[in-house]
Amino acid sequence: MKQQVSSTVNGEPVEFLCAADETLLEVLRDRLSLTGTKEGCGTGDCGACSVLLDDRLVCSCLVFAAELEGRSVTTVEGIATPQALHPVQQKLLEHAALQCGICTPGVVVAAKALIDANPEPTEEETRYWLAGNLCRCTGYDKIIRAVMDAAAEMRGATS
Amino acid sequence: MDSFAFQAPTSLDAAVALLAEQRQASVRTQILAGGTDMIVQMRSVDRAPRMIVDIKRIPETRSIQLGEDGLILGSAVAGAELSARDDVAAIYPGLVEAADLIGSTQIQGRASVGGNLCNASPAGDTIPALIANSAICQIAGPGGWRELAVEDFVVGVGRNALEPGEFLVALRLPAAQPRSADAYLRFIPRTEMDIAVASAGVRVALDENGVCTAARVAIGAVAVTALLVPEAAEALIGTRLDDAACAAAAAASSAAARPISDKRGTETYRRQVVGVLTRRAAVIARDRALGGQA
Ligand SMILES: Cc1cc2nc3c(=O)[nH]c(=O)nc-3n(C[C@H](O)[C@H](O)[C@H](O)COP(=O)(O)OP(=O)(O)OC[C@H]3O[C@@H](n4cnc5c(N)ncnc54)[C@H](O)[C@@H]3O)c2cc1C
Ligand code: FES
Ligand code: FES
Hints:
The structure holds 2 protein chains of 2 kinds. Chain A is α+β, with helices and mostly antiparallel strands.
């Protein structure tokens, strides 16, 4: 039996039909054509599928799409504005903190959530926060530096 | 049943009625909290169709009530919601730390203490911490409401004491005594994202002179279920939790452990480590109780 679900994705009202056992990740990619969110493991280990569910960082591979009724989701597609990349995205580019890019959408969403919750994260806090975002190419140092640099820039921009 | 179904009842009565009705119709149901165990299992070892019953829209499963009678923790409260409550962490720091050890930031956004307990893994991090705090399961079902101590709730690997049609609504922790505190430690070979090789939860209460008047010790990942170790508690009660008392408690935990050998550690190693963790957790709980952190 298909479920009819009304929710908000990246600020826009969205309605979709899905099977009861479909994950949010599957619905985003296969029904809503939001393919920025990636599948790495499907078991909560890699963080490539990270999204914000009512502003809380979660793995979309471990959420049922049917749970979305009346709730809101932000994916990597909802992070930049039409005018500019989010500082996290800009700094990842500047620091060359990506290679294949599969982990990057998850890193962007997770790092934005970190800075929103903690505008001045220490290196240790940043590393723990991103421990669930695995990257098999870049190495973590560049990612961590880019995220801390983005946080610093955002503090500068808002003060 | 040849395909999955999904329901999200919004009250306890509606959930109990739904579960009873589906049982009558011989439909398999499974309770969904944060899904961090369930969805992984549904994609691997247990793919059969069933009705998924999401309990997160039931207010009682989502509330955290801290009062004079203690703590009532809704079964589906996510780790991130619990860690945000400094008032709870001030009284039950070990339980909050145990919940906080589960998975990554992303997993914390979903994983619940109730789900960790119901999943009944021998290495489930919150289970020894709950037992150390004398936590009681509040269960709703076709026969009404019942309560059961956490140490009696887990009955085997992946098995709990829930009867068909029942589910866990909340966990009730008795009010903390004056000068009391808890602590939870686990050993993993990494610093994040791993499963306990051994673990220990301890709660102690002290009198004005620093003498231990009450203690609970529970150990995890060293038997098919987490174990309450009364002998370790007895080694602590009546002492000032000095080195000798903590060493005696450690020996009692090692003796009570019934570990297996696997790739995470041998039986001998686990037995040794669970003793060390018991000693260290007792020292942390003591220092917290003395430091007025409770
Ligand atoms: C990447 C990753 C890392 C992890 N790390 C750890 C770790 O370090 N330590 C650890 O202990 N665990 C870990 N886990 C396992 C898991 O996250 C925890 O056990 C978590 O607490 C489960 O809670 P949940 O709300 O997601 O449960 P769910 O998956 O929703 O449920 C778990 C089980 O309990 C049943 N259930 C849930 N709630 C109820 C209820 N109220 N009444 C009756 N039955 C119920 C479900 O039907 C299911 O069988 C990890 C998992 C992942 C994916
Ligand atoms: S795909 Fe979700 S965590 Fe890897
Ligand atoms: S850039 Fe390839 S996994 Fe991170």
